[in-house]
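Sequence and structure are kept together here, with a separate record for every protein. A complete record is shown below as an example:
=====
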Amino acid sequence: MAASSLSVVFVLGAGNFGTALSAHLGKLGHEVLLWDRSRETLQALATTGFNDRYLPDLKLPEAVTATSRLEDVQRAELLLMAVPSHALREMLTQLRPSLSSQQLIVSTAKGLELESSLFPRQIVGDVVGEDYANDMVVLSGPSFAREVADGHPTCVAIAGLQPSNLLRVQEIFHSPRFRVYTSNDPIGLEVAGAFKNVIAIAVGACDGLGYGANSRAALTTRGLAEMMRFGHAVGADPLTFNGLGGVGDLFLTCSSPQSRNYSLGYHLGRGLSCAAAQQQIKSIAEGILTSKALHVLARKQAVPTPIVDEVHAVIYAGKPIEDAVNDLISRAARPERDNFGSD
């Protein structure tokens, strides 16, 4: 596609993905204002161009500037939210006085808010208004930050309700090594982004228990069916789950130790407690909180989610991993394609 006109992008959050996307956008020539709540991180970025905590060997382009001022979002055409879903409400509340109706929000958050069981678009609508939620774009897909930072070929999906906004975000982000595909189903993309983290915990635990490739493939595929069943109940397009943000991101997250959620599950399968497993991965695994929020929301929607339920039971009720696996594999036989009914 044609080269984009350059833009100013305010990136909220200098974690792995926020840092990697800042570098990507800076290399494309966009001016990037990178904010983080950590003063130490911002100081390191300002003085050395490196993020000492995340991707410490990645030198950020000169087009990326660290800022401690949330008010600097006023300069930006686009607000890229690269913070965990549980932090969105607090950050949006702080940003609200500085936002204007001309600014476009792009969300990379993959999860739900625990207290409300709201998805990121719903949180945006709740905090800054439905106009922002209707205009915003969701970005998701199989995209480990490390590989984006290293320039490995990557494909992602963006979804939103306004075609012009999708084209503008595609224009800003797209490059030969970071291909961006559009979708009109933000609900499906957010459901997939939340579910895949919980399924990855289950698959990691399966590997930690020493089960083989057969078990991993079966659990991942049934996790996809569970994701599709829930998505159907909340109005998602089933075809979304066959795309980059669905099966693509699911299989990536369930197949590599680069995934924090897979790694957490692996340590659980090896017998560690959830607290000890979190210490091992030294990062936030969004699937922990998401498993609880999805468990609650699935009950409200009367949607069977046996894998989510077992992950929730292991993390929040102390259920032994072996018992969770046995309860899953001892379920009654049923037709495989009954994805939208019982499981």
